[in-house]
């Protein structure tokens, strides 16, 4: 089927994308049937589901077709049964759904296919087959490009990190990565309906149809890092194990969620599920083996993970490779001040401006998959997750870097000739107005009678004011006249426009249209800027009603803060300590700022660094240090990316040319791969 798909794809190269039942396609099938008359062929009657219709039709099966399935694929059809297919779906319909679902992850088959239980099931089967065909073709391309070795994709995932060049300056961290768990993609354990919930929770997926993908680590590999103590143990111990930050993560303790999570067979994803130590250890071990020494890894509880890593089987290996465990910038707010100074990204030398919060940004969008994976089978859940992240890597990560810049640049300029004409028209309007103002002043007389006569000093003051107005009107007229004359020279105008001229009317319409367009652009700019803001804050999928609900919740929270602040100030006054104002509290950026108000063995409130101003200066100083490091890192990474872009295009074109004569079908697939990459 993959070979048949490649042959059909090559035949479609350069052709317009038509529906299966379009007249040209129908004519082609009838022509094939006529050519096959007298040859050992047969017609297969089959129901075809296209993008917008379903229709019964006949398909020609030629003598060179080894299987019915490959014969159908030659006609751009994917069957839902391998032996006696009665229903098939067009490649166009499948590809449209695949693309739409990757762009809108919660888009389900039921929303795409008119609801009939058997139709949805048939479409699901054909989609699985189509995705496997694409995966097979992708493997052929990777093999032809010599990119099918173990972990090749992982080792070349980020050109800025991995495409090293000669004579680069040494950096403290050769590569930075972030890891974290997310529970939105958990899967309900369906077997709990038949038995005890605890039995369902402890059972592992054993289906022989489990989805396999290079982005997944196997159960066997992961469980090698789980000791008897770690298998069901969280990175946050009940007793805190002497860690000052542990008490701030009580919501992650297993005892608080054990029963609730037991209804789920698979608890989300852990990227570099759940917060068990074996997941963080296995990801770290995998990356150390793939990338070698001098790695820096961000984790929201990196301080605790550092202790766990030191006592694990790979602790010595990590120390030998100079691995550094860090705390992400955002999550650092929940750690105490001492932990921040040791582990937070702001204070770690050599880290630059990286906040190590990439996982949160990735999860903010992948959460949309939750509705379609919660009750899915093991196979379809993992399929959806793997293809989602694969599509994000290929189609969105690098493309989105330029989206905002290109949009804003598109609003910068108008056509130069039209701009000059509109400016000349506006200057003529200004000149007419200033001339009218001057003539009005010059033609205005003041009549003085015996009854209206004013004292000499009052009359002279009024005269000076009128003279000043006349002088200003004269200067404005001369300024506008000079501007008009200058534009007439630039536009080559020999006769000044007047309101009755055709040129005047055309320029007037241009100006009116520009005012409208600029008003529209301003509205669009504000809306798009808001969208970009929400995207950066990971809230672009938050609707108006939900944002309004969040706003009300924040108001309620503010009221709670007022109440708590009143109670604190009362207690502080009783102890003779300083009180807090509401504006001061809401400006606190770190939870560690509250640590300065606690009782300690030594009074730190009088220390220079304990004042808000001093702490702001300290943080600003460290941010400047990180910014200087960021410049060094960017100068290295920019050269890597630019060099990679040139080398990648040159290499893919060479491989495409290598197979052009010997295997044109494979060469065309390499060409499609190159187009996506470029």
Task: Explain what the structure shows.
The chain is of the alpha/beta class. The protein has three domains: 2-144, no CATH class; 171-407, no CATH class; 416-445 and 453-536. It is 56% helix and 7% strand. The chain has a four-stranded mixed beta sheet. The protein has a three-stranded parallel beta sheet with strand order 5-10-11. A two-stranded antiparallel sheet has the order 6-9. Helix 1 (2-11) crosses helix 27. The longest helix has 48 residues, at 612-659. The model is unreliable at 192-208, 228-233 and 256-261 (pLDDT under 50). It comes from Pisolithus microcarpus 441.
- What summary fits the major beta sheet? 4 strands, mixed
- β content, as a range? 5-15%
Shape: extended
Q: What is the count of helical runs?
A: 27
Q: Can you count the beta strands? A: 11
Low-confidence stretches: 192-208, 228-233, 256-261
* Count of spatially separate domains: 3
- Helices and strands: which structural class? alpha/beta
Q: How confident is the prediction overall: mean pLDDT? A: 76
Helical coverage, percent range: 55-70%
Measure the end-to-end span. Answer: 28 Å
Tell me the radius of gyration: 35 Å
How are the strands of the biggest sheet laid out side by side? 2-1-4-3
Annotate the secondary structure layout.
Elements: H1 2-11, H2 23-35, E1 42-49, E2 54-61, H3 68-74, E3 77-79, E4 87-90, H4 91-103, H5 109-112, H6 117-144, H7 152-155, H8 159-162, E5 175-178, E6 180-182, E7 187-188, H9 197-202, H10 219-223, H11 254-261, E8 264-266, E9 269-271, H12 277-291, E10 295-299, H13 302-310, H14 315-320, E11 324-327, H15 337-343, H16 358-366, H17 370-373, H18 378-396, H19 403-409, H20 416-442, H21 456-491, H22 502-536, H23 544-575, H24 582-586, H25 592-595, H26 612-659, H27 664-677
Parallel strand pairs: 1-4, 5-10, 10-11
Antiparallel strand pairs: 1-2, 3-4, 6-9, 7-8
Pfam families: KDZ (PF18758)
Protein name: CxC1-like cysteine cluster associated with KDZ transposases domain-containing protein
């Amino acid at each position: 089927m993959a070979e048949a798909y490649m042959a059909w794809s090559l035949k479609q190269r350069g052709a317009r994308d038509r529906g299966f039942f379009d007249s040209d396609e129908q004519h082609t099938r009838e022509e094939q049937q006529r050519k096959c008359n007298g040859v050992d062929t047969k017609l297969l009657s089959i129901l075809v589901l296209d993008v917008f219709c379903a229709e019964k039709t006949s398909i020609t099966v030629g003598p060179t077709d080894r299987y019915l399935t490959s014969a159908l694929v030659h006609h751009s059809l994917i069957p839902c049964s391998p032996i006696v297919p009665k229903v098939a779906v067009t490649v166009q319909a499948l590809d449209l759904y695949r693309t739409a679902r990757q762009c809108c992850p919660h888009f389900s088959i039921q929303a795409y296919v008119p609801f009939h239980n058997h139709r949805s099931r048939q479409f699901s089967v054909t989609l699985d087959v189509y995705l496997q065909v694409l995966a097979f073709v992708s493997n052929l391309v990777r093999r032809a490009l010599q990119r099918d070795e173990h972990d090749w994709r992982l080792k070349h995932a980020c050109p800025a990190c991995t495409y090293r060049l000669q004579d680069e300056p040494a950096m403290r961290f050769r590569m930075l990565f972030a890891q974290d768990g997310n529970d939105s993609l958990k899967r309900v354990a369906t077997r709990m309906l038949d038995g005890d919930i605890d039995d369902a929770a402890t059972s592992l997926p054993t289906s022989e149809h489990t989805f396999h993908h290079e982005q997944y680590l196997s159960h066997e590999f992961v469980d090698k890092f789980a000791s008897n103590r770690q298998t069901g143990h969280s990175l946050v111990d009940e007793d805190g194990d002497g860690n000052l930050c542990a008490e701030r993560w009580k919501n992650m303790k297993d005892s608080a969620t054990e029963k609730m999570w037991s209804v789920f067979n698979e608890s989300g994803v852990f990227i570099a599920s759940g917060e068990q130590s074996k997941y963080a250890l296995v990801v770290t071990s995998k990356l150390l083996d793939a990338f070698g020494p001098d790695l820096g890894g961000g984790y929201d509880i990196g301080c605790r993970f550092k202790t766990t890593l030191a006592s694990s089987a790979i602790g010595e290996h990590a120390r030998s490779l100079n691995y550094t465990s860090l705390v992400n910038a955002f999550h650092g707010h929940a750690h105490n001040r001492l932990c921040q100074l040791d582990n937070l990204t702001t204070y770690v030398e050599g880290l630059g401006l990286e906040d190590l919060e990439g996982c949160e940004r990735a999860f903010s969008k992948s959460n949309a998959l939750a509705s379609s994976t919660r009750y899915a089978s093991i196979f379809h859940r993992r399929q959806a997750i793997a293809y989602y992240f694969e599509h994000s890597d290929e189609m969105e990560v690098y493309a989105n870097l330029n989206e905002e810049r290109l949009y804003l640049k598109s609003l910068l300029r108008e056509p130069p000739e039209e701009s000059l004409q509109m400016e000349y028209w506006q200057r003529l309007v200004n000149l007419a107005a200033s001339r009218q103002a001057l003539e009005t002043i010059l033609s205005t007389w003041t009549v003085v009678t015996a009854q209206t006569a004013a004292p000499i000093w009052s009359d002279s003051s009024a005269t000076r004011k009128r003279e000043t107005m006349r002088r200003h009107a004269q200067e404005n007229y001369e300024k506008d006249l000079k501007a008009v004359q200058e534009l007439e020279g630039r536009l080559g105008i020999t006769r000044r426009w007047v309101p009755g001229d055709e040129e005047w009317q055309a320029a007037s319409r241009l100006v009116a249209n520009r005012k409208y367009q600029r008003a529209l652009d301003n509205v669009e700019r504000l809306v798009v800027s808001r969208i970009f803001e929400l995207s950066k804050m990971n809230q672009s999928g938050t609707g108006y009603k939900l944002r309004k609900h969040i706003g009300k919740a924040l108001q309620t929270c503010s009221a709670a803060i007022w109440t708590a602040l009143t109670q604190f100030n009362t207690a502080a006054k009783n102890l003779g300590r300083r009180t807090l104002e509401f504006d001061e509290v809401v400006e606190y950026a770190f939870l560690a700022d509250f640590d300065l108000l606690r009782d300690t063995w030594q009074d730190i409130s009088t220390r220079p660094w304990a004042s808000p101003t001093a702490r702001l200066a300290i943080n600003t100083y460290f941010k400047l240090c990180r910014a200087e490091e960021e410049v060094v890192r960017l100068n290295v990474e920019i050269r890597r990316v630019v060099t990679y872009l040139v080398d990648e295009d040159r290499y893919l074109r060479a491989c495409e040319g290598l197979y052009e004569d010997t295997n044109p079908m494979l060469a065309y697939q390499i060409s499609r791969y190159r187009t996506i990459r470029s």
